[in-house]
Structures
1.
Amino acid sequence: MAAHLTGWMIRLTIFLLQGVAWLDRTLRPDRAFPRDLPQLLDRRDWLEASLRRGGLLVDGEALVAVAGRQIKQQEAFRSTVAAIDCETRTPAGVTRRLAIFAKLSPVATSLREHAVYILQENAVKETTVYQTLAKAPGFPAARAYHIDVHRPSGGFCLLLERLEAREVPEHEGCPRELAEVAIDAFASLHARHWADETTAARDLRRTPPAVVDWLSRQLQGPDAALFGAMLREAWAADATAPVAIQHADARVGNLLFVEDDSPTAHPCGRRAVFIDWQAARRGKAVFDVAYFLVLSLEPEVRRRHGLELLERYHRALLSHGVADYPLQTLLEDARMSVLLVLGFVTLPLMSAEASTTQANQEGIGALGAAWARRMVAVVEELDLVDVGTRCDIDGAALRDAFRRSNDGAVRDFPVAMADRQAAQAFVAAHGAGLFRPWPQSMDG
């Protein structure tokens, strides 16, 4: 009954928000900030004033030229991102060239998508991060010069510093040394908001369990009930202590690796900066790390270095003052978080929210082959019997259901067959279980 009532309320809310979306598209009312890139380039006075308030322009410095280009292919629920190049002149005649990023609302392909985008409050979450948390020194995010949101329509405008950075294509996988840099950034982020109960932290709301319960019951197929139970249990576990601020979409595509010459820098001379904070929420800290290890590392790299990366994360937490979180507990939490990762990515959900439209699934599918290969290997290696039993689910049934899921993944992505066979061979030789010591025999 509760799930039925929640589902009815969700459908009604989406219906009403579709009306809001229609009015916004049809009337295009003026906002306090630009709606899109052409408007941003046209409103030079607004841009100049915003950059001055953000501290990028000195007194009397004026914009004399502005150019911009969209740099990311538009996809459902992906914001429009543009590179903006500015030329300025001071009263003394000195000219400067400035480079920034502009991030604006996505142009959804249907009224339903627009409604779901508003419902998810992605722009509100990112605004919360940049207006509050990211102002703290050392926070692993780019500097924001301006951020604003129009809550009723989901309208959004963010001006960010344009960092010179190394980016890793997601399909290539993150190399070990940059994975270590990412792990250090996770620990820094999580430690500063460990058990954080401030107003800003509470503003990063989680999807209510009742909504997750309803969404889990929309799954299709013979294993839908089992996968739904798994998702509900894993989501409940994610809300248990220790809770911190999660980025919640912490894959390598949302990381920039910038040069770092500080005394504490990684030997590779880089530090990690997170972008795209639209999924940020409060939850179990190690979820971010599990998400990164599963989706961003090639199976062989994860297999060989997953445990040492988690140990590195634990040492970094200790160095930041986090206590009473034994390594063994962290490892158990990481394995449970993998269930949630598998649920989020293999089921038609995005961060346990309502991104269930066909167009959004196609947008997510741009990474399909790489993610399928990596998750197929994880499913083969994870001790599903043990993990399932820990969350009061029939572990053997869960193992069999995921094997059927892997059968389907290999049919859809034949390239994943080699990764499945390699994972099966590894388990046959060394037993099931993620994040285990790398066998010394393999180094010979």
2.
Amino acid sequence: MKIAILGAGKLGLRIVEALIDGDYDITLVDSNDEKLNRIAQQYDVMTVCGDAKTIELLKEIDVSDTDFLFSVTASDDTNILAASFAKALGAKYVGARVREPEHMHQLGFIRDHCKIDMLINPDLLISGEIYRYLIEKYTLGNGVYTFDQIALIEFEANKLPEIIGGDLTQFRARMSDFLIIGISRSGKMIIPHGSDKIAEGDVLYLIGGKENILKLSKKVHSKQRHSDARRVMIIGGGKTGYYLAERLADYGSEVKIIERDRQHCHYLTNNLRKVMVIHGDGTNVQLLVDEDLDRMDAFVTCTGYDEENLLLALIAKNHGVEDVISKVSRESYKDLISKLGIDMVLNPLDITASFLLRAIRGSHRVLSSVLLQGQAELMEIFASDRISMLGKPVKELKLPEYVIIAAIRRGSTTIIPDGNTVIQDGDRVIVVCLVSEIGYIEKLMKPASRLGISR
């Protein structure tokens, strides 16, 4: 499969990293030759230096023979033109990153008249995840997600006090019909294993047969939770803050945005009629207190600086704000995050890469997928006779700690696997993986012959 990525910025590179272990021929285009040389030394991709929106360059990379092309340069206009030109030249599927709020009310027109298959907005994606967390509370709607006869349930561990303090081995002995496939703890999603213990305050994700899950739901979901996010403070009026504030205000929340750029404050005031916009430095704790930080139901940090976002989130948590959410792009902070007690930390690059990979994998391999708090993805994969994980006991797959095979649907039978379970041709396999490591799934689905494996 041939894939072209136009733009070698953070998102373009993140897509390359996610695809590099898969069965793909990747071409990366950028105008910065020095950057491309560094990437070519690190990854097995073809690099081409030039202007992404020119017909000459698109023909040079043989776009007519490309299965997927994604234009993710820093310019919306370049992305729209490049994707449209590529489609006209014969690319099978094209996508363009479009971020500016001015384009959001004309996406349908752009998509239809420019013949673009997918328009990608990372800020809209991450603001949507934050909105679902704050307003719906359960990221799975009513706490249960079903696919065929298998179901996933999300609930607070405190609903089953008898399991708190025990490890996963003890949990399986007590509740053998279920498997814990994720634990959300202090803002970090954990893919758990046998010795991991369940702590008070954890949010658990369990998978099992649909009938068993629905019975458990009646016990742990006394009623659907409704949002308490009546008052929300957002630090940073950039694109993420803008989209989130607009959506929360439409819902009925009282929203305050604190933005340090005076000119941008005027823009926000003119375009967000139901939002209070405050010109000031969000790192000024006294300003936050004066603006009723202690009365806020939720606090969201989405400035352009990860360190600032984390520090402010910690301050809000220490002031007793119930729901505190941060946007953080650097993977190097993930170990620190779990120690801060922040409720939710989201990486826009990971979420966007996951969104794009779903389009590439298509329904022939990944039958369905759902994000878990924006940090892990649950996928239903069709096990064909070509992929590398067939014919081996699960324990011999040597899965990394961030991946778990959660369930298998074989005909009319639901299997909660153990180490001795063997995946067979035609199985529907439920796999959970951290979004930050989503590229590993490409390795699992890679044809065995391409890995030098024979059966």
3.
Amino acid sequence: MATFVNECEIPFPVEDVFGWHTRPGALERLLPPWEDVRVISREGGIADGGVVRIRAKRGPISAVMKVRHTAFEEGRFFCDEQVSGPLQSWVHNHEFEPAGSGATLLRDRIEWEPPGGAAGQIFARGVIEAELGRFFPFRARRIAQDLARHAAWQGPPLTVAVTGASGFVGSALCHFLTTGGHEVRRVVRRKPDREKGEIAWYPMERRIERARLEGVDAVVHLAGESLTGERWTPAKKRAIWRSRVEGTRLLVEALSSLRQPPRVLVSSSAVGFYGNRGAERLREESRPGKGFLADLCREWEAEAAGARRAGIRVVLLRTGLVLSPAGGALGTMLLPFKMGIGGRLGTGRQYVSWIDHDDFVGLVFHAITTPSLRGPVNATAPHPVPNATFTTILGRVLKRPTLLPVPSLAVKGMFGEMGRILLLEGARVLPEAASRSGFHFDFEGLEDSLAYQLGHTGPAVRQR
């Protein structure tokens, strides 16, 4: 049987670190974004008897691991054991000890046995140990960052309604909020789960359960037809426009009609507002651009801004490229880069205004909890880079060459208008409003963000 022991120091008291682990969403926040791993069912919490089923996929191979919590002592430790799954055995002890002034020593002791007997010991053990070595530095950093963001809010727990809650950004936001002790009401376009407090809305049919929005403190609006994935045919552009403009209009009308409207609406927009602007430094007061995407963002924001008439503070997040291998553009482009056939697009001089996935989640929370923040806010990191620089850094993090550029004609031929606007055009967008309001970016540099999100940060904790 193999043993893996990992120790890290989290700069928060034991009660905070342990409490974070006991709340809904903690496990989801700890799953590595570079792997296709998700929680598929849960019964109970982390106390003795709780059961979790996790599905992991890699290529065509899929496995489900059923884990049961078998020991628990408040503020000190908890344990989970594999009941069934791909390993011969797995026992994971989580231990919490005070460390110095207001810090916690978090120790993970894992005893496991690979499948396949002697052959598994030879071939699987090294792979599993390498993955554990990638995972724990990521986990330590995310716990510390999340706790720091939660600690910045000194008010009571909030009730937050979220549209687009099933997306790769919205789901992460929901799990972040629940680990902070806040209540989340997911606004969904299907039959709602009442036990989970879900709210139904059907934006294309102009129907929403208004009464269930009564009394929420904040609304985060992230829903909308995807801009990527297919060519922008006239039908696709109509669907994009309706989902964003008309969907936002319906939401704002519902919020404005409430007896007790939310204090704040944080509504997603995009850096496409600025159009194709070369190397011009763009701030929130910069003029809008031209074209379909710029026109869409302008109308989209105008609909959200209508909530001000009901006394609701409105924050318009002009979002850049959100970096996470769990979805979005980075998730799409990873395969060719891992194969060593990635490269710059077109000239490579177009700017990529990006933001780390964790920083974006943190910025949404900052927008909810900062009364002085209102109007347009560029949701981008402080240092956007040209596309050629982006691809070079991604290749370096993955340890792959980036020598095969994709000509502009090929991009236009494959993706049409969508490819031209989203891939070949760019804008150098700076987060002046966020910085001015006191928001702290954990990831100012692109390489730091990509290494963290892809599990290539190297050992940051003691292992044995």
4.
Amino acid sequence: MTHATITHQAEPCNREPARCAGDDITPLEQVFLRNNHPAPTLAPDTWQLRIDGLVARALTLDYGALRRYPLHYVASVLECAGNHRAAFAAAGQPADGVPWRGGAVANVIWGGVAVADLFDDAGVAAAALQAECHSGADFARGVEVAALREQGMLALYANGVPLPAHLGGPVRLVVPGWYAINAVKWLSRMTVIDHESASPYNQQSYVLYDETGTPYGKVRELQVKSLITSQHHRAGWQDIRGVAWSDGSPIRRVSVAIDDEPWRDALLHAPAGRYAWRGWSLRVAIGPGRHRLRCRATDAAGRTQPDRARSNLRGYLMNACVSYDIDVR
């Protein structure tokens, strides 16, 4: 089956599905592509990873050596920090960057090696703050050592198959519960440092700037969010379905509003894991005409999607309740 996609840029490729399908696990051919540089050509038999910096023992690992570590599996949401950036513009708050429409999110089963195992073997210093993760000729992103130790993984597999090259294979970093900029593709080096990385991908990009250009935060953990994934065209009883996620804090409630009617609580489906999205559904009757659907999620930490997300010059962390206008016959 051919799935409609939106290509925002051909090279480096930035592409999203026209609509998030909401499958329990996203098929790999429907996973969005977000690239800050052209994809390198790497093969498992030539790939190597260097771990150096503030370590007792620098490590150089090839693909075979990495596979000798215990394998772990985790289902987790992968979301671009700019997902739904186009919604800022629609609300009168234009922002710089790829105008993602909402398809830059996926739920994938990753298989790989715990970063904690590698850090233990390397003897990472207690003073370590970040690991500067390198990819391609000049890309580097500093990621917090604490998060890498707790949930970081070097993924070799996605949905049970070897990690495809276009998704960062043969090996990429995955940090469940954090935005995708931290899930560095085509990983080649991790340099442990005791300060924040000076990389432009830490100091200029993926920084939250208010309307005056003053920084007030950085892109790290996922925000609580939900989407409607079902489509509705015919009047009568039907199921509104969708997905919801957060930074690892469990989803406790999803509510749905139709036009100006009160919010109604949806049925939460069984959780698929701490970092996976959670399905939900609500059976309702919808009459003919034009209607507006909205959904909002609340997690166990008490965080609820806002009606309006805080604007920022680069259009990150758009987690406001998304409206869906439908024509029902």
